[in-house]
Design brief:
Blueprint: H1 2-8, H2 13-16, E1 19-23, E2 26-29, H3 30-44, H4 50-76, H5 83-96, H6 104-110, H7 115-135, H8 144-155, E3 161-170, H9 178-193, H10 198-205, E4 216-221, H11 230-233, E5 245-247, E6 250-261, E7 271-280, H12 287-302, H13 307-316, E8 324-329, H14 335-341, E9 353-355, E10 358-368, H15 376-402, E11 405-407
Helix pairs in contact: 3-4, 4-7, 5-7, 8-15
Length: 409
């Protein structure tokens, strides 16, 4: 790795201490870029060719500029990283890389990674997270009406797929705006398709709050996502990477990890906890006997108002077998039975059903109806995260706009 770096980034003392950029009063040197580059290349599995390093260098520089701004904002708000927070963050990194936390520093230095550079990166991530929580979280309010509107919108959707998604968001960069972000997105996509780790690149370069979770945002319904990504997602399957998706606040890259169906087709995923009572009847009985039998069944049904009543009534009627059929999906039952129990109130007996020479009475003790629509707490969390993401991007954009940034390379 070092041979490639030496070829692309000067490593003599004079060149490495050359100033690459000045952010307000803080300096970023060529050595800062080189040491961060080593971390990215090691973690992402990118082959450090000249072309990769040249293109990646611009993105690394932007990341370092943003980190300087974040640290400055943290200082102004008297936010610091505790030893415990730092140790816990390192332990998570070590575990993610399947390395003993006690050997993590030794492992990195053996790979040519500067420990101070790694420490600075980890601290910057913690500071930004704490800054967002302190400054932005108190500003977010999710109203009941917003949740209700979102629920109504979801309930009307006909889309029956969910997507397990990871994302990278690149914000517009001065002076070229989205065009530079799009070029960087195209390069990142190329790296990913050549084997680079999506999560590492998201953690390093994404401007979304999901960067802290390596770009992973989990299972999403189509209508939960911004409309501008819909045409892309509908054409994507597991493992697919989207092209750069441009929108007002930057450029998205989306990876679909998995796809699953979540719709309820004709109630086939509905399940019930079912009770059954069989009473023998004979078609050869005289009409009078059949009338008495029907009256007996009706007497039994009238005394049932719960599943416990159902079990007791079955014993009194001489039905010695277990009434419990357990949890069954409606699609596993005959249409005749489904018709009688689909809307049957819990604990109430069904109308008698003739099956062969038997008269059968059913009771539903519990019902599971999978919902296509998440519950209110889930919707609240989703809207909250969306608002936080928007505020965080604006916060960073404003810091960039108000800073004096002098790029010298």
């Amino acid at each position: 790795m070092s041979l490639f770096l030496t070829a692309a980034v000067p490593t003599n003392a004079q060149e490495t201490m050359k100033i690459a950029a000045v952010v307000n009063s803080e300096i970023i040197t060529m050595r800062d870029i080189e040491t961060r580059m080593r971390i990215v290349l090691l973690a992402s599995n990118l082959r450090p060719t000249r072309a990769v390093i040249k293109r990646l260098g611009n993105q690394v520089l932007q990341t370092l500029i943003d980190e300087r701004l974040k640290r400055e904002a943290a200082r102004k708000n008297r936010i610091e990283v505790t030893k415990t927070e730092f140790s816990e963050a390192l332990a998570i990194l070590a575990k993610r890389n399947k390395i003993d936390p006690d050997r993590f520093r030794q492992y990195l230095t053996s790979k040519g990674v500067d420990w101070n550079a790694m420490s600075n990166q980890v601290r910057a991530q913690i500071l930004w997270s704490k800054l967002v929580q302190r400054i932005l979280l108190p500003k977010i309010l999710v109203s009941d009406s917003e949740i209700s509107d979102r629920l109504e919108q979801l309930s009307k959707s006909l889309e029956k797929r969910e997507y397990d998604i990871s994302e990278i968001l690149l914000s517009p960069g001065a002076p070229r705006g989205n065009s530079l972000a799009k070029e960087n997105a195209e390069q990142l996509i190329k790296y990913i398709k050549n084997g680079a780790d999506f999560g590492v690149l998201a953690e390093e370069f994404s401007d979304s709050t999901s960067a802290s979770s390596r770009g992973y945002i989990g299972w999403q319904k189509l209508e939960d996502l911004p409309p501008f990504v819909h045409p892309y997602l509908l054409k994507m399957g597991p493992g697919d990477i989207s092209p750069p998706i441009e929108f007002q606040d930057g450029v998205y890259i989306i990876r679909v990890n998995k796809v699953r169906s979540y719709g309820i087709k004709n109630g086939e995923m509905e399940a019930v906890d079912l009770r059954r009572m069989l009473l023998q009847a004979s078609s050869n009985d005289p009409v009078g006997n059949r009338a008495k039998f029907a009256k007996r069944i009706e007497t039994i049904r009238k005394k049932i108002s719960s599943c416990n009543d159902f079990d007791q009534a079955a014993k009194r009627a001489g039905y010695s077998r277990d009434t419990k059929l357990g949890r069954l999906k409606l699609k596993e039952l005959s249409p005749k039975i489904v018709k009688e129990i689909r809307n049957l109130p819990i604990g109430k007996p069904s109308l008698p059903i003739q099956i062969g020479n038997n008269i059968v009475i059913f009771a539903v003790c519990q019902r599971w109806r999978p919902s296509r629509v998440p519950d209110r707490p889930q919707i609240h969390q989703k809207i909250f995260r969306e608002k936080l993401d928007i505020l965080a991007r604006r916060f960073l954009r404003d810091m960039r706009a108000n800073a004096i940034i002098d790029i010298r390379i």
